[in-house]
Design goal:
The complex is a heterodimer of chains A (170) and B (720).
Chain A lengths: L9 E8 L2 E6 L3 E6 L13 E7 L2 E7 H4 L12 E9 L2 E9 L1 E8 L4 E2 L13 E7 L2 E6 L1 H5 L1 H20 L1
Parallel strand pairs in A: 2-11, 5-7
Antiparallel strand pairs in A: 1-2, 1-8, 3-6, 4-5, 6-7, 9-10, 10-11
Chain B lengths: L1 H31 L4 H20 L3 H18 L7 H19 L9 H17 L15 H20 L5 E9 L10 H9 L2 E8 L17 E8 L3 H8 L6 E9 L7 H14 L4 H13 L14 H19 L7 H28 L2 H24 L1 E3 L1 H18 L3 E6 L4 E3 H22 L3 H6 L6 E10 L2 E8 L6 H10 L11 H7 L21 H10 L3 E7 L3 E9 L4 E9 L2 E6 L3 E7 L1 H6 L5 E4 L2 E7 H4 L10 E8 L2 E7 L1 E9 L13 E6 L5 E5 L1 H19 L1
Parallel strand pairs in B: 6-8, 13-21, 16-18
Antiparallel strand pairs in B: 1-3, 1-4, 2-3, 5-7, 8-9, 9-11, 10-11, 12-13, 12-19, 14-17, 15-16, 17-18, 20-21
Classes of the chains: A alpha+beta (170), B alpha+beta (720).
């Protein structure tokens, strides 16, 4: 979709969700943490897993599986949180994403990335930058900024109201 | 490069705002006591400094403008012109104009020129009315602003000199070495030197030994430095003032080498410079020799101190004493706010780690470690308190701004208002004070516009012509209470009720207490003003106040009697960064409540619950108190313990309990923002990091109560 924006060979961090391999541009990644001690924030949608302590700062964490419309899964020993930095309007925000397991960092030249097909990925293509080929495997390169930005806030807002209404009905 | 220039200008702006505020206060004082010499002097000084620094940073228009104002005040100083309302009004216009010019993002000389010329013209008119114009050289138009500036300042310097020749002069040795990159900051050292020359007899020695070979020269760097001998009657502050804007970009040493008049002549200066040339430094002995030399030849008989042998020692000590004295006088330093914020963050982290340490030590049961941990705890507490203290600023800094606001507003609306303040020394966190400005402006405007009646109406209702607005602040526990009281018309409860029903804010049959009705005026979209004025009445206003105060975790309270006036009380926590919290447990999660809102904790047994027949109320020493079960509110699964605990809190004057699984205890809570992603979740007021590294959410009790109330109201009306 916006594959044209990738013109140089970049490094990507890959991680697994369910059985699929996903990748994010390594420049967004700040660090990787174990998935422990996530504090749930009340009255937020389910995909917002909560907040964690990243060296003294409180960082929100989202569940990538739920965010991308997959089934929730129980945390395992491999489950980890990829801490990412993204520009949101004019500030940089730090946010964590829960992944089933983190794989590796590899280089991918732009010619090995293809635009995401409109059908067949079972994913919202607006979240996908392209599909890369790596060791005979397909890697879905996520547009992490799109996933975690503008819409996100709107959804949190809706979510909190949703929870509220639910309460009212009880 | 422009960035550096802008940085210089930013410093100037900051200074200028401060000076303008000072000037404004002086003017307000002068308005009351027009012949207060000290105030006139202060106003003059403030203008003088603004003039000097603005021309240095290329704000020539401001320099010209302040110059005109200064000229008039110079006359006032000499009793040739009287302080009139006209003059004060005009000076206020100067202040506003300067604010307008420096407030702009991009500086544009020409944009405000006509306005500035207008004001300058008014000054001239004022002077000519006093018949004084002739006495002043008015050949300004033909010269460039810089020349004008220089000629005027030297004119003043001469005047000052003539006035003050009688007093003792001191000789200073000034070492001035600009950093290489000084030009890049938009600063010109030569201007400073020429300013120095205007202070008195001045010998400048230029050092060129640092200039590298031609091939190594960076044409944009400054390689020269200077030694200056200055004999002047001005004190060391006057010299420091000259360098005030370059302090950070150069090395400056100012030493007093003589406090008598001994060195005030051409030859002595020449000698001094020869010594510098030969030896590159000046020792006490050299100066001593020189001074005694001069004395012995009897060229100077004005020397007060006749004991020649130890005189210099004395003098150097005196000089040193003066320098030290000066440093003591400068009891405050300017620190960038973000550096302070960083310090506070670090202290916050330290507090967290310390809590962790204490916890770990207790489980170890090692007496020696325990001792150390306790020591660290004590130090951390002290450090925390001192750091918080650094950020405290007296609230009086913003009180003063309102004097001007009241003056302008009452003039505009044709009302007579007396504005008094009390408790300006109450200190609050700097960030809090900044955020308080807008709400207070709103409230004061509101009081004058809606509250205080026109003088005629006041007299008709048996009040004094002058209305009263009183602003006060005081400590109250961990909070500061700010009260805005007026003796105006007050609030008509019926009127509000009627309005609120019309606007659909409440239903006709809703029964409300007096307090509830008064709180309606803080709802968005509510304004009782009959007509929309420039000042207020657009229906935005008090709801903005409420929102601002909410973000400060404060509360707004209003009390009014029709015809008697109104009191608005703002309750603001002392600091934003660290609070005393109460740590609770619900399910597996821990939460924090601000301890300031907590009144007591009681137990809630199964029997109590059964006895209440499903209603969420408890009997506390005969009082019926409703409670909210946090487990339900926060959607937490799991089983409840047999004995719950209820934390009784006070929200807007009402007692409400919060049922939790377990109250853990007090907790020093360093408030961390949850960031913009969660900014719309308003039942939280932040998060904190606990001793074990986990994050705990800080709950916003008033919001929780508000949500629950509205939820239950919907339920009740839904079933009806």
């Amino acid at each position: 979709m916006n594959i044209e924006t990738i013109t140089d060979t970049r490094q990507y961090l890959t991680f697994k969700l369910d059985k699929e391999l996903y990748a994010v541009y390594v420049a967004h990644v700040r660090e990787i943490q174990e998935a422990s001690a996530i504090t749930k924030v009340p009255r937020t949608p389910e995909f917002m897993r909560g907040v964690i302590n990243v060296r003294g700062s409180v960082v929100p964490v989202i569940d990538m599986r739920l965010k991308l419309g997959m089934q929730a899964a129980k945390d395992t020993i491999d489950t980890c949180i990829v801490i990412m930095e993204i520009g949101l309007e004019d500030e940089v925000i730090i946010i964590g994403a829960v992944a089933d397991s983190v794989q590796e960092v590899f280089e991918l030249p732009p010619e090995r990335i293809e635009p995401a097909p409109k059908i067949g990925t079972l994913l919202n293509t607006k979240f996908i930058k392209g599909i890369g080929k790596h060791n005979e495997n397909f890697v879905i390169i996520l547009d992490i900024e799109k996933i975690l930005t503008a819409d996100e806030i709107a959804i949190v807002r809706e979510g909190s109201e949703g929870v509220n209404e639910e309460n009212v009905l009880h | 490069m422009t960035e550096d220039l802008n940085k210089g200008r930013d410093i100037f702006k900051e200074e200028a705002y401060e000076l303008l505020a000072k000037l404004e206060n002086c003017l307000l004082e002068l308005e009351m006591v027009p012949d207060d010499k000290e105030m006139i002097e202060r106003a003059f000084r403030a203008m003088h400094t603004i003039k000097g620094s603005s021309s240095m940073f290329g704000f020539d228009a401001i320099a010209n403008l302040t110059h005109e104002a200064e000229t008039v005040y110079e006359m006032v100083r000499k009793d040739k012109v009287k302080v009139t309302k006209e003059l004060i009004d005009l000076t206020f216009r100067v202040i506003d104009q300067i604010m307008a010019v420096i407030g702009k993002h991009e500086y544009d000389e020409s944009a405000d020129e006509s306005k500035i010329n207008d004001i300058i013209f008014s000054f001239k008119q004022l002077l000519s009315k006093e018949g004084l114009e002739v006495s002043h050289p008015s050949s300004l138009r033909s010269r460039s602003p810089q020349e004008r500036e220089l000629s005027r300042s030297s004119h003043f310097a001469e005047q000052d000199l003539a006035e003050e020749t009688k007093s003792t002069k001191r000789t200073y040795m000034i070492y001035f070495r600009p950093h290489h990159d000084i030009f890049l900051k938009g600063l010109n050292p030569l201007l400073l030197l020429s300013e120095l020359c205007q202070l008195g007899r001045c010998t400048i020695i230029t050092h060129t030994d640092l200039i590298p070979d031609l091939e190594d020269i960076d044409p944009e760097a400054c390689y020269t430095y200077w030694d200056v001998f200055l004999t002047t009657a001005e004190d060391i502050n006057a010299i420091r003032d000259i360098f005030i804007f370059v302090e950070d970009n150069c090395e400056i040493k100012i030493n007093v080498i003589d406090t008598g008049n001994s060195l005030d002549n051409e030859e002595a200066h020449k000698h001094l410079s020869n010594i510098i040339f030969e030896k590159a430094e000046l020792t006490e002995k050299d100066v001593e020799g020189l001074i005694t030399g001069w004395r012995n030849t009897g060229k100077h008989n004005e020397v007060k101190n006749n004991s020649t042998g130890d005189s210099l020692q004395d003098k150097l000590q005196q000089g040193g004493g003066m320098v030290r004295g000066h440093q003591m006088e400068v009891s405050s330093i300017r620190v960038a706010a973000n550096k302070l914020d960083k310090l506070v963050n670090l202290v916050g982290e330290l507090v967290t780690v310390q809590a962790r340490l204490s916890q770990a030590v207790i489980t170890r049961n090692d007496p020696e470690m325990l001792l150390i941990a306790e020591e660290i705890e004590r130090l951390t507490d002290d450090l925390r308190d001192s750091t918080m203290n650094v950020r405290l600023v007296p609230i009086g800094t913003i009180f003063n701004r309102f004097k001007r606001l009241v003056r302008d507003l009452s003039n505009e609306l044709g009302k007579e208002v007396e504005f008094t303040t009390r408790g300006g020394e109450t200190e609050l966190d700097k960030n809090v004070i900044e955020k308080l400005n807008d709400p207070l402006v709103h409230i004061i405007r509101n009081s004058i516009d809606h509250g205080i009646e026109p003088p005629a109406n006041r007299e008709a209702s048996g009040k004094s012509r002058r209305g009263m607005v009183h602003l006060s602040s005081e400590y109250s526990g961990a909070n500061v209470l700010i009260k805005i009281r007026d003796d105006g018309a007050g609030i008509d409860l019926k009127e509000i009720r009627k309005d609120a029903i019309e606007k659909g804010l409440i239903r006709e049959d809703t029964s409300l207490t007096e307090r509830d009705i008064l709180s309606i005026i803080f709802s968005p979209g509510f304004s009782t003003s009959e007509k929309v004025t420039k000042v207020s009445g657009r229906g935005v206003g008090l709801d903005v106040v409420k929102r601002c105060i909410d973000t400060l975790r404060g509360t707004v309270d209003i009390d009014s009697k029709k015809g008697r006036g109104m009191i608005i009380t703002l309750k603001i926590p002392l600091t934003l960064a660290i609070i005393e919290g109460l740590l609770l447990k619900v399910g597996d999660n821990q939460y924090i409540l601000p301890l300031s809102a907590v009144e007591e904790c009681i137990e809630l047994t199964r029997q109590d619950v059964a006895g209440a027949h499903g209603r969420h109320i408890v009997n506390v020493r005969g009082r019926i108190i409703p409670y909210i079960r946090l487990r339900d509110f926060l959607n937490i699964d799991g089983t409840m313990p047999d004995i719950e605990q209820i934390v009784i809190t006070e929200v807007n004057g009402k007692k409400v309990g919060l049922a939790v699984d377990h109250v853990i205890g007090e907790h020093q809570t360093v408030i961390k923002s949850l960031g913009r992603i969660y900014r719309d979740v308003d039942v939280l007021s932040g998060a904190t990091i606990l001793g074990n590294g986990k994050v705990a959410i800080i709950l916003n009790i008033p919001k929780i109560v508000e949500y629950t109330e509205s939820k239950e109201m919907t339920m009740v009306s839904g079933s009806a």
